[in-house]
Amino acid sequence: MAKVRHFFSSPMALSSRLKLAHKIKNIRERLDEINAEKVQFDLTERHEEVHVNPLWREKTHSFIDPSTVIGRHGDKEEIKKSLMHPNPTRNLNIIAIVGLGGMGKTTLAKAVYNDESVVNHFQLRMWVCVSDNFNVTRLVEEILKSAGGRVDKNSSNEDTLQTSLRELLKDKRFLLVLDDVWNENRNKWTELRDLLTGGSHGSVIVVTTRSRRVSSILDPIYTHSVEGLSKEESLSLFVKCAFKEGEDKLYPNLLPIADEIVKKCKWVPLAVKSLGGLLYSEVDESEWELVRGNEIWELEENEGGILPALQLSYNQLPIHLKRCFAYCVNFPKDHEFENIVKLNIGWHMD
């Protein structure tokens, strides 16, 4: 058993695990055959509207080390202009940060949130990870907790929570970040917004979202679109993730390969970071070439071209972590595990 575990966790297993790409290619060929048969037998295609829930991601927080942020200075300054000089006719101003998954919207929001001039400008700052559960009562609780307030779930009801929120915000210029918003129901948004109008003039809500539809129902004073990093910024981020400090200078032969991998990531920060982390401290040129030349890059890509890069990262996981990853699908997005031991037991029982 120990030998098997060693095999799956060793770098030598890279080529074996990447063979998954060949299997996917065969599936695609079979699907092409099915499509050809559909045309041959004149079969009709029926479209049904299907609602797809957003993929799981862990809850975000507001802290960030400024030295880890690469290439977002211009974006940050643009947002700060609207943040520090909002519409004077509005009591509460909304700013939307919009972009595809993995573009770094949360990182950008953190950089703005922790900027020294922003910290000094607002009397109160709060950060809430929203995700797809846009329950107004839950969000009021999270806002109160972010501001340092106490929420007694046993004695609190909607009325007491809303009273506490109004008291908290009264006559204060506040900044509230609502990260990763998916709600497209304007009535729910209006209900939450109306509870937040008690602050002083100049208060701002910053919303990060992947959806232009979400942004449109917010009626923002400014919408900032987040694009990919530049070629140079992407390579800098990749090198930071793939090498120990200064190590890249010892292996100049790897940098041209890194440049090509970054290009295939389409300069999407999450994809760049994922593959950089995948190759961390791996200095064998053949392993880098396996990633660069893998057939999975030829797959049809999803929005933003991020899927192949993340699929490669998944393929690299040892088999026991792949199983754990699959087991987590049983839990809703942003689920908080209070007892990791119970999670481990449940995973092994399955």
Characterization of this structure:
By secondary structure, the protein is α/β, with parallel strands linked by helices. The chain folds into 2 domains: 66-225, Rossmann fold, CATH 3.40.50; 229-316. 48% of the residues lie in helices and 10% in strands. It has 17 helices and 5 strands. The protein has helices at residues 2-9, 14-17, 20-40, 73-84, 105-113, 116-121, 136-146, 158-169, 186-195, 212-218, 231-242, 255-264, 269-278, 285-293, 307-315, 319-327, 340-349, and strands at 92-98, 124-131, 174-181, 203-209, 222-225. The chain has a 5-stranded parallel beta sheet with strand order 2-3-4-1-5, with helices on both faces. α9 links the parallel β3 (174-181) and β4. α4 crosses α5. The chain is globular and about 60 Å long. The model is unreliable at 1-12, 47-56 and 301-305 (pLDDT under 50). One of its GO terms (molecular function) is ADP binding. Residues 75-245 form the NB-ARC domain.
| Adjacency order of strands in the biggest sheet | 2-3-4-1-5
The CATH first-level class of the largest domain comes to Alpha Beta
First-to-last CA distance: 19 Å
Radius of gyration over C-alpha positions, nearest whole angstrom: 24 Å
Unreliable residue stretches: 1-12, 47-56, 301-305
Count of discrete structural domains: 2
Name the CATH homologous superfamily of the largest domain.
P-loop containing nucleotide triphosphate hydrolases
Major sheet size, sense and barrel closure: 5 strands, parallel
Sum up the overall morphology in one term: globular
Relative helix content: 40-55%
